[in-house]
Amino acid sequence: MSHSIPRSLVKDLDLFRAVPEQDLDAVLAIARPMRLVAGDPVFQQGQSAEQFFILLHGHLKVVQTTAEGEQVMVRYVIPGEVFGIAKAMRRPTYPASCMAVEESIVLAWPSSEWDHFMTGNLQFAANALQAVGQRLQDAQTRIKELSTEEVEQRVARCILRLVDSSGEKTEDGIAINFPITRQEIAEMTGTTLHTVSRLLSAWKERGMVNTGRKLVIVRKMDDLIRLAEGNLSDSANKPAARKNPV
């Protein structure tokens, strides 16, 4: 067994839930730890998918470059998530790039071990398939939102998802506990930086949120939930309530 990675670091993660300790030790013996600072890449779009990963600490972002050369923010990776599983999807290369948004710790395994992991431990396989299924469901939800919901509703839903996965209570409200820019929110919701800035400014005036550089704090969760559900009408303060696909 590798003594450099304590079993306690991963045994409580959903992916390894109920995996026998002997199997967990075997998994950790071939894991390689990676320590990243903000901006460090984990992998690049188009790179050969030689490894898959689990995030132990910090936050990462997944960015895709379109055929036109435009960068699009796809999603954030939160602690406990498995990612970079291109080989599990039978893809030879990574479909997007992944980089740290703050100091982060990642465990990496050779992609050649994925099938062995899946066949060698039924509990790991069940947990991994559940994680992949959730990822696909999230992607379908976002596609539906982009095609059917008004922009204010999409932005509200996006911020609620981030708070739900990475919220931290502060004196001022519930903060997204990692650096996030308005441009990244715009890319995730299929709108523009101008629209996101306008919405956040209007919400700040109404006391719903507080914002700073790479910081969003939700102060009135109930109001944001009503916005996300399309139930809070305030036409005077809804400058971007029209559908805005760009």
How would you characterize the overall build of this protein?
- There is one protein chain.
- 35% of the residues lie in helices and 23% in strands.
- The chain has 246 residues and is an alpha+beta fold.
- The protein has two domains: 7-142, Jelly Rolls, CATH 2.60.120; 149-237, Winged helix-like DNA-binding domain superfamily/Winged helix DNA-binding domain (Arc Repressor Mutant, subunit A), CATH 1.10.10.
- The strands form three sheets. Strands 1-8-3-6 form a four-stranded antiparallel beta sheet, with no helix packed on it.
- It starts with 20 loop residues before the first helix and ends in an 18-residue tail after the last helix.
- Residues 234-246 have low confidence and may be disordered.
Topology, please?
Blueprint: H1 21-29, E1 32-36, E2 41-43, E3 51-57, E4 60-65, E5 71-77, E6 82-83, E7 97-100, E8 104-110, H2 114-120, H3 122-148, H4 151-166, E9 167-170, E10 173-176, H5 182-188, H6 193-205, E11 209-212, E12 215-218, H7 221-228
Antiparallel strand pairs: 1-8, 2-7, 3-6, 3-8, 4-5, 4-7, 9-10, 10-12, 11-12
Helix pairs in contact: 2-3, 4-7, 5-6
